[in-house]
Write a structure and sequence with these properties.
heterotrimer, A mainly alpha (about 110), B alpha/beta (about 450), C alpha/beta (about 475), A: about 110 residues, about 70% helix, C: about 475 residues, alpha/beta, Rossmann fold, 20 helices, 14 strands, Nase_VnfK (chain B), nitrogenase activity (chain B)
């Protein structure tokens, strides 16, 4: 059940989100961590962080993504906080796997831009 | 009143008139059938020149690059010549000629082009025993000469490589028109046909104006064959129409194979065309037919309507290839236009002694300025200068903004003319070309009068 | 298997690693084309050089800057009259190009004096212009001319001018891409941080990686004006040299072209802590998303929604008119790199168009990760494609329209396939809402061009199959 839902979220992110494809592994990790954390907060009713400029950008990306999630995947409104955290955790693992761990991009780990 | 011949005083260039040598070499190369030039240099040296040709002709031409990268700059690029030649030979089974065109980078690095071509020849012989591919060394460092010289250099190199033996007399005439449009090649072929002369035009670029066909076939390539080039040594004579573009090849054929060479004035305008036809008639013994006398008459008839009514006393600035600019200036004199500024765009020191320029100098009864090694900033400054009062600019599309932003009418002529449709199809040479050009000038002036509401009522009745 | 060795590549089998046919169920962990790798000599690749990546693509866009090209004449001649990036000051950038016109003696004895003289001449001839970029080229890099030293001398002699140097000869790297990189990194390290900005809005950003092709920048600027967002610098569409020295003053970097300009956004984040937001500026859906994100960042969501509603009301009906008529059209995209991933979904979602083949000249693997994630199965993804490959791919996928450069456009014309200028646009701008209607209109006019049917007709009696049907 969760796996189908996870597929849907993962499919959405792969297709639409440029932040997962930043130039270097650490940027990708930072974006995935930051945006999914903020999205989790939004979806579970926690106040998202908006302290730093980077927080606010994570918020901007997460906000639009969550709105799309709600529009495309109505089930997400029904999901409980635990399920959301579960799904977001799974989503994060899959994104990290495809864009970092098992990425064939040979430039991902260059130390300079 | 007089004619001043000078050089641009600045060291640098603002808005160049010509591209560099390798660009000209590529233009000569694509005139050969079953030929893909291989430019030994950075990729931009090829990509942009292909784009330039595409802009002018609205056609694609095949030109390859050795794709020089950093390692070649350090260790030499010879392997890339060999890889490039072999890759082309393998993937293009019809290929028969590969001019290897050097650039600034590979000349500075000092790659041994001849040595590598020898290696290529050995490899080709081994891998394709039944096939002859002529690999031509063309030395065209970008820091010498210009596209004008590069065209000439590549033409000569192709002949030096392919025309290696004196063949039996063919009775043909070699015709070297220089860097001209398909419309000019078509005209010259027609003229030769009407005179009953079996001529070979080098390079035969008539099909650079190529069709969209129901069978989707592509025929956008030069029509000069390896056989044509080989047979040039058996021709009865060579006639070169452009002193700076192709005349050296005519001279080479004379020196090596005793094919008598004649260089005529580039046939822009009536008088130059007369002289060309008379020279060819003298050389071949064929008379000038009635049809050309009539065509000449039609052209003069048309120009007669324009010259003293509209053209007289109009001050003209000319820029472009040297043979073109000089020829156009001569044409201007025929139709009462006043060429006041001739811009020649490279550092060839021979321009100043060109007999045609000296002749213009003797003839003109107004101030005329010839600027050698000029750029288009020289044009722009003079167009903006109220002392000059230039009425008309004639030149290629790279000067378009000078006309547009200074509200001076401009006739596109030469290469490239990418901002006007179909000019490559029209002749500029010959009687028909003189008429086309004269009418283009008139219509440009008329349009300008209309859009500026400047005596546009003159045309209310004409 | 999905890496493809085309028939025409049997003699250059290494090309197999550059061409990918996506199959359902696969992703970029399985296959990712090799890219940003050396080109095989003699393949008739489409690539340009790194010098042009710096001069023609980025630096030469600036509307107030002399582009001094230190080299033989061709490098200047060739990077002039090949772009459509207007400016609001009469297109200074497109009207002029400058060269030191290096000749043999300067190659032998060094060209620094000539460069210095040319710089002074250029400033003397155009006294209103006070900014300059000097570029090395292949030969001046090989002989080791010190252009930085020359720039310093000229700046000392002329206190009111500022000069930036780009040392990126054409042979550096493997494509234009290297030139983007050199210019980006040089600029952030040498010029950003030099000038203060007059802040006129609580919301400030840089717009990065948009070169005002066909007027893109100027069109998007209307949105930023409506939203009350101050654009500190446009990198570099319709931009000025000095604005680019103020980039550190922005609160946010919005990146469109991540390939040509991602580097400077990364560095602005690293050095100045300015966050980087990547958006797609082509397509309704994407443009709206980009505006929403920017507005969410600044906390001005209502303004963003109002703008989007206004633009949708104005342009969506026109887009839909074209969408209805473009359903199922098969499109190929053969451009530089990023437009592949910017466009593949937007034409699908907004216009119902199917992208069947995509070729990138200078994209990196990052670009292929993006485009393969977004693109369809059954579509070819090609790095550094060459002419024979294009013929073969056309046979395989039969596109109805190809977005590519003018030269390739002339080539495919003979095959009765219309092209749209995928670099300079046919009749742009193509960005933003209005722009995407322009793109749709141009595509509609291209595929419905009656001449295509006439071209296919053999008047001798055998009527060749019309192209549209042959493609189905």
């Amino acid at each position: 059940m969760n796996s189908e839902k996870l597929d849907e979220l993962y499919g959405y992110v792969q297709e639409r989100c440029l932040w997962q494809f930043f130039s270097r592994s650490w940027d990708r990790q930072e974006n995935i961590d930051g945006i999914l954390k903020t999205a989790t907060d939004i979806l579970t009713g926690e106040p998202p962080a908006k302290e730093t400029p980077q927080d606010r950008l994570f918020y901007a990306d997460a906000k639009i993504m969550v709105a799309d999630f709600k529009q495309r995947f109505p089930w997400i409104e029904e999901a409980g906080a635990a399920q959301i955290r579960d799904l977001m955790h799974g989503l994060k693992e899959r994104l990290v796997d495809i864009t970092i761990t098992n990425s064939k991009n040979g430039e991902l780990h260059h130390t300079l831009y | 009143m007089g004619c001043e011949i000078s050089n641009k005083e600045r060291a640098g260039v603002i808005n160049p008139m010509y591209d560099c040598q390798p660009a000209g070499a590529q233009y000569a190369g694509i005139g050969v059938k079953d030929c893909i030039p291989l430019v030994h240099g950075g990729q931009g040296c090829t990509m942009f020149v292909r784009l330039l040709f595409a802009q002018h002709f609205k056609e694609n031409f095949d030109i390859a690059s050795t794709s020089l990268h950093e390692d070649s700059a350090v260790f030499g690029g010879h392997q890339r010549i060999q890889d490039g030649v072999m890759t082309l030979a393998r993937r293009y089974p019809e290929l028969r000629v590969i001019p290897v065109i050097t650039t600034c980078s590979t000349e500075v690095i000092g790659d041994d082009v001849e040595g590598n071509i020898s290696a290529c020849n050995r490899m080709l012989k081994e891998e394709f025993p039944g096939r002859k591919i002529h690999v031509v060394p063309v030395h065209t460092p970008s820091f010498k000469s210009s596209q004008v010289g590069g065209y000439s250099e590549c033409m000569q190199s192709i002949f030096k490589t392919i025309t290696t033996a004196k063949v039996a007399p063919t009775g043909k005439l070699n015709l070297f028109p220089g860097w001209v449009n398909p419309g000019d090649v078509a005209l010259l072929k027609r003229y030769m046909g009407e005179m009953g002369i079996d001529a070979t035009v080098f390079m035969d670029t008539e099909s650079f104006d190529s069709p969209m066909m129901p069978d989707k076939s592509i025929s956008t390539y030069g029509n000069t064959t390896v056989e044509d080039i080989q047979a040039a040594s058996g021709a009865s004579a060579s006639v070169a129409l452009a002193r700076y573009e192709g005349a050296t090849t005519a001279n080479y054929l004379q020196q090596e194979f005793e094919v008598p060479a004649t260089i005529v004035g580039t046939p822009y305008g009536i008088g130059n065309t007369d002289a060309m036809l008379q020279a060819i008639s003298r050389i071949t013994g064929k008379s000038i037919p009635e049809s050309l006398v009539k065509e000449r008459g039609v052209a003069i008839d048309a120009l007669q309507d324009l010259a003293h009514m509209f053209f007289a006393n109009k001050k003209v600035a000319l820029f472009g290839h040297p043979d073109l600019v000089i020829g156009l200036a001569q044409f201007c004199l025929e139709v009462e236009l006043e060429p006041v500024l001739l811009l020649l765009g490279d550092d060839n020191s021979k321009y100043k002694k060109d007999p045609r320029i000296l002749d213009l100098k003797a003839k003109c009864t107004w101030d005329m300025e010839v600027v050698c090694n000029a750029d288009l900033w020289e044009l722009e400054k003079r167009v903006k200068d109220p002392a000059y009062k230039i009425d008309l600019i004639m030149g290629h599309s790279k000067g378009r903004y000078v006309g547009i932003y200074n509200n001076v009418p401009m006739v596109r002529v030469g290469f490239p003319t990418f901002d006007r449709a179909g000019l490559y199809r029209k002749p500029t040479m010959g009687y028909a070309g003189a008429m086309e050009l004269g009418e283009a000038i008139a219509n440009t002036l008329f349009t300008h009068m209309e859009y500026n509401k400047d005596r546009e009522w003159l045309l209310n009745t004409w | 298997m999905p890496m493809v060795l085309l028939e025409c590549d049997k003699d250059i089998p290494e090309r197999e690693r550059h061409i990918y046919l996506k199959v359902d169920g696969e992703d970029t962990r399985d296959f990712l084309p090799i890219s940003n790798a050396a080109t095989i000599p003699g393949t008739l690749s489409e690539r340009g050089c790194s010098f042009c990546g710096a001069k023609l693509v980025i630096g030469g866009v600036l509307k107030d800057t002399i582009q001094m090209i230190h080299g033989p004449i061709g490098c200047a001649y060739d990077t002039w009259h090949t772009k459509r990036y207007p400016t609001d000051n009469g297109h200074f950038n497109m009207k002029y190009v400058w060269s030191t016109d290096m000749k043999e003696s300067h190659i032998v004895f060094g060209g620094e004096k000539r460069l210095e003289k040319s710089c002074h001449e250029a400033f003397d001839e155009m006294p209103d212009i006070k900014r300059m970029i000097i570029y090395t080229t292949c030969p001046t890099a090989l002989i080791g001319d010190d252009i930085k030293a020359v720039a310093k001398r000229v700046m000392e002699a002329r206190p009111d001018v500022d000069i930036f140097t780009v040392e990126c000869p054409g042979f550096a790297g493997v494509s234009q891409s290297k030139g983007h990189h050199v210019l980006n990194i040089g600029w952030i390290n040498e010029k950003v941080g030099q000038l203060d900005a007059e802040i006129t809005s609580p919301y400030t950003m840089n717009f990065i990686g948009d070169f005002n092709i066909g007027g893109d920048t100027q069109l998007l600027q209307k949105y930023w004006d409506k939203l009350g967002i101050q654009v500190i610098a446009h990198f570099t569409g319709n931009g000025t040299y000095d604005d680019l020295r103020r980039m550190h003053k922005a609160q946010l970097n919005v990146v469109n072209c991540a390939r040509s300009s991602g580097y400077i956004a990364n560095e602005l984040k690293k050095q100045y802590g300015i966050p980087r937001l990547d958006i797609d500026s082509w397509g309704f859906n994407y443009m709206a998303e980009g505006i929403r994100k920017i507005c969410a960042f600044f906390g001005i969501e209502e303004k963003g929604e109002a703008l989007i509603a206004e633009e949708y009301a104005k342009w969506k009906p026109q887009l839909d008119w074209y969408k209805e008529r473009l359903q199922g059209v098969k499109m190929a995209i053969w451009t530089g790199g990023p437009r592949l991933w910017h466009w593949t979904k937007s034409v699908e979602d907004d216009l119902g168009v199917q992208v069947v083949a995509m070729a990138s000249k200078f994209g990196h693997q990052e670009d292929f990760e993006k485009v393969i994630a977004r693109g369809q199965a059954g579509t070819y993804y090609i790095d550094d494609g060459n002419e024979l490959e294009f013929f073969e791919i056309i046979d395989l996928v039969r596109p109805d329209v190809i977005f590519t450069g003018p030269r390739v456009g002339e080539l495919v014309k003979k095959l009765h396939i219309p092209y749209i200028n995928g670099h300079g646009y046919h009749n742009g701008p193509y960005m933003g809402f209005e722009g995407f209607v322009n793109l749709a209109r141009d595509m509609y006019n291209a595929v419905h061009n009656p001449l295509l049917k006439l071209a296919a007709t053999d008047i001798r009696g055998e009527t060749a199959t019309p192209v549209k049907e042959a493609a189905e």
